[in-house]
Structures are given as structure tokens and as C-alpha cells.
Design brief:
Layout (H helix, E strand, L loop, with lengths): L4 H4 L5 H14 L5 E2 L11 H12 L12 H15 L5 H4 E4 L2 H12 L5 E6 L3 H9 L3 E6 L9 H7 L4 E7 L11 H13 L3 E5 L15 H4 L7 E6 H4 L8 E4 L2 H14 L5 H13 L1 H23 L5 E2 L7 E5 L7 E2 L2 E2 L3 H12 L1 E2 L1 E2 L8 E5 L4 H16 L3
Parallel strand pairs: 1-13, 3-4, 3-5, 5-6, 6-7
Antiparallel strand pairs: 2-8, 7-8, 9-10, 10-15, 11-12, 14-15
Helix pairs in contact: 3-13, 4-13, 6-7, 6-12, 14-16
The structure holds pyridoxal-5'-phosphate.
Pyridoxal-5'-phosphate binds next to α6.
């Protein structure tokens, strides 16, 4: 069988691979603690479950409009107006997709021609690079590890070429949990306007920001970006609804019409029942969002304080999302249980095989030498998992 160059060049999702391996080991009866998954461990809010049950009972089992049911689009538009003071026309400027992931791909599909360059700020979420490549584009990676995990305007400007078309911004970020401050976003906005670029603004973690910080929506910060930005959001992280697969995208009419056509040929509508469930969540799960936020914040503090007790590793305190990105470069090249730790991938394999803890190598996020912990885990699992991690690091020679 001969595969396309596209298929051959694609890297599998490292996060899904780790959580898959961890789940398989769990099924074999191993006491695995997974810090790998990028999903809340809570059950979806009752408002979502009830709305889904009602939709089933009402027989909402048919195709819906390819870009989503009008009721949900209206609710998303209302949410954006309430939360960010932004006005989007629900029927023409809002699209409901099968998760945020396909919406990012469809947006890239509508913007990227072969050879076009798209900027991403590393460490970055695993799928951006692959999706850009699938569209024939060239991911241009800007390393932010030396600048507090934020891109500097000068590094962006230095990366621009006549082929640069746009960029993907993710705040709060996965895997670092960095929350982009106003000054960074303002500087980016100026560059985007000056160089006639577009932005895919992935704010899927916008409800998970801590320590009194505010998530900033870049369009509400600078209205010049209204016509050159696709906002990406969804029910997965805010409402613990990863399995339902509901995302939303908002942007200018012309672009949304193209993205809608793309979706029409790709997935058609997202699951009808899941759309009603997401509507239930948007209308009635605010209290659940607050409760989950509080729980995540407590876990974040616990994770950070436990990890900070461990010598030879360092971290920057995350201010958003539910991840901690840990610098393990001091451990590389040394030995653990008689074997050399060549790199972060090897480190993660050893952690899983020897201590039954699943963590994701930084190289999956374009930054080798780091590992990502997700703290979407119970407090007990966090304490036990970090205890094992500490034991492992202590045994590195
Ligand atoms: C930064 C980022 N964007 C998008 C997604 C995809 O979200 P969804 O599950 O809605 O497709 C994820 C999921 O891990 C993510 O971390």
C-alpha cells in the first residue's frame, strides 16, 4: 500500500498516545496515575445531561444545519456579548463544530495555501503543527522558553517573511498555563495589522485563569482585529464536556461562510444531542464552572508546592488551564535504574514503566527537555503521583 506524503509526514498525537498507553496499563491492573490527559476529570454538568436526555426524548436525532442549531449559535453569541462585550451575528458569524480541534483545522483550511507560513509560539499544543502541515502550510515555530513563555514582538517580527499569513495564539496556554498579558497582546495586534495577517485565537481555556488574573480576548482589546481573527472556544474544558465534541468558532462573516462550507463537506453537523447538551451547559452550568475552577485552583496550588520541593527540576507557576510544565533538563544524560535518560521521551517512558505515572514529553509540544503534568486529577492521586515522581527524580544519578 502506498501512502500519501501527507499521511507519511504526520506525527501521531503524543498526548493521546500517552493516555492510551496509560489506560491500557490500567486495564492490565497496574496502579497507573495519569497526569497525561488533557481533560477535566469531572462529570459534565447536570444541566448538560438533562438537556441531552430531553433532546433524546424529543427525537432530536436528525441532521441539524451543518454549522449547528440556531439556538446554540444564539447562546454562544450571547455568551460572547456578556463575557467580552463582543457582538457576533449568530446565524452568519458563529459556527458550532465537533470540538475546537476540527474548527481550528477548518479555519486553517480556509486560510492556508501550500507554502504559506503560519507562526506558532512554542511550547504549543500538539495539533497545531500537524494541522498546518495537513493544509500544505509551513509552521514557523517561535521559541518562547527564554522569554517567560511569551513571544516577544521582536521575535515575531524577525520571523516574518513575504509568505507569512497568520498565527495561532493560545491563551491560557496548553502546556504551560501562561496567560497572555495585555501588553503582549497589544504588541501582537499592532504587528498583525501592520503586516496584514490573520489570527486563530484559541481561547478554549479562558474560564480557567487563577490568582485574580483576567483572560483577555484579543478582539475586545483591539477592534481592528475583528475582521482578521477567528475566535476558537468550546464546551470541552469549561464544562467538562470533552466526550461530547462541541466547539465554537466566531469570526467575520466572509471567513465564517467559507469555514462553514468546509465543515459542510468534512463532518457536517456536530452530534445533534451534544449540541443540545452544550446549550444546556451554556444556559445552566455557571455554578458548575465556578466549582470546577475552585477545585482546579486548589489542585494547581498543591501540584506547584509539591513539585517545588523536588530538587533538580524547575517550573514556572501556571496561571491558567490545568497543566504544569516542568523543566527536567537537569535530569537528562544521567541514569535511572541503570539506564541513561537520553531525552524527555525516554524520561516519560521510564516514569510510566517504573513508577506508573503518565506524563507527556515536552517534545510533543515542540520543546524537548520538559514534561507536562495535567492536574485534572483527584487530590489523592496528585499526592501519590507526585510522591512517586519525587522518588524517581531522587534516584537519578
Ligand atoms: C489548546 C487546545 N486547543 C484545542 C483543544 C481541542 O479541544 P476540543 O476537545 O474541543 O477539540 C485542546 C484540547 O486538548 C487544547 O488543549
Amino acid at each position: 500500500m502506498k501512502f500519501s506524503t501527507r499521511a507519511k509526514n504526520m506525527e501521531p498525537s503524543a498526548t493521546l498516545a500517552i493516555s492510551g498507553k496509560a489506560k491500557a496499563m490500567k486495564r492490565e491492573g497496574k496502579p497507573v496515575i495519569s497526569f497525561g490527559a488533557g481533560e477535566p476529570d469531572f462529570t459534565s454538568p447536570k444541566a448538560a445531561l438533562d438537556a441531552a436526555k430531553e433532546a433524546i426524548d424529543k427525537g432530536e436525532t436528525h441532521y441539524t444545519p451543518a454549522t449547528g442549531i440556531p439556538e446554540l449559535k444564539e447562546e454562544v453569541a450571547k455568551y460572547y456579548e456578556r463575557r467580552f462585550g463582543l457582538k457576533y451575528n449568530p446565524s452568519k458569524e458563529v459556527i458550532i463544530g465537533s470540538g475546537a480541534k476540527p474548527l481550528i483545522f477548518e479555519s486553517l483550511g480556509c486560510f492556508v495555501d501550500p507554502g504559506d507560513e503560519v507562526l506558532i509560539f512554542a511550547p504549543a499544543w500538539v495539533s497545531y503543527v500537524e494541522q498546518i502541515k495537513l493544509c500544505g502550510g509551513k509552521p514557523v515555530i517561535i521559541d518562547t522558553t527564554q522569554s517567560n513563555f511569551l513571544p516577544s514582538p521582536s521575535s515575531i517580527e524577525a520571523s516574518l517573511t513575504p509568505n507569512t499569513r497568520g498565527m495561532i495564539i493560545n491563551t491560557p496556554s496548553n502546556p504551560v498555563g501562561v496567560v497572555y498579558p495585555e501588553e503582549t497582546l497589544k504588541a501582537i495586534a499592532d504587528l498583525v495589522v501592520k503586516h496584514d495577517l490573520w489570527i486563530i485565537y484559541d481561547e478554549i481555556y479562558e474560564r480557567l485563569v487563577y490568582d485574580g488574573l483576567e483572560h483577555i480576548n484579543i478582539v475586545s482589546l483591539d477592534s481592528r482585529l475583528r475582521d482578521r481573527t477567528i475566535l476558537i472556544n468550546g464546551a470541552s474544558k469549561a464544562y467538562a464536556m470533552t466526550g461530547w465534541r462541541i466547539g465554537y468558532a466566531l469570526g467575520p462573516q466572509e471567513a465564517m461562510s467559507k469555514i462553514g462550507d468546509f465543515q459542510g463537506h468534512l463532518t457536517s453537523n456536530p452530534c445533534s444531542i451534544a449540541q443540545w447538551a452544550a446549550l444546556g451547559a451554556l444556559r445552566g452550568a455557571e455554578e458548575d464552572v465556578k466549582k470546577m475552577h475552585k477545585a482546579f485552583d486548589e489542585r494547581r496550588k498543591k501540584m506547584v508546592s509539591l513539585l517545588r520541593e523536588i530538587p533538580n527540576i524547575t517550573l514556572v507557576e501556571p496561571k491558567g488551564a490545568f497543566y504544569v510544565f516542568v523543566d527536567i533538563r537537569n535530569c537528562l544524560g544521567k541514569t535511572y535504574e541503570g539506564k541513561t535518560i537520553d531525552d524527555d521521551v525516554k524520561f516519560c517512558e521510564m516514569a510510566l514503566e517504573s513508577k506508573y505515572i503518565a506524563i507527556v514529553p515536552g517534545s510533543a509540544f515542540l520543546v524537548p527537555g520538559f514534561v507536562r503534568f495535567s492536574y485534572a486529577n483527584s487530590m489523592e492521586e496528585i499526592e501519590e503521583g507526585i510522591r512517586r515522581f519525587k522518588e524517581m527524580v531522587a534516584a537519578i544519578r
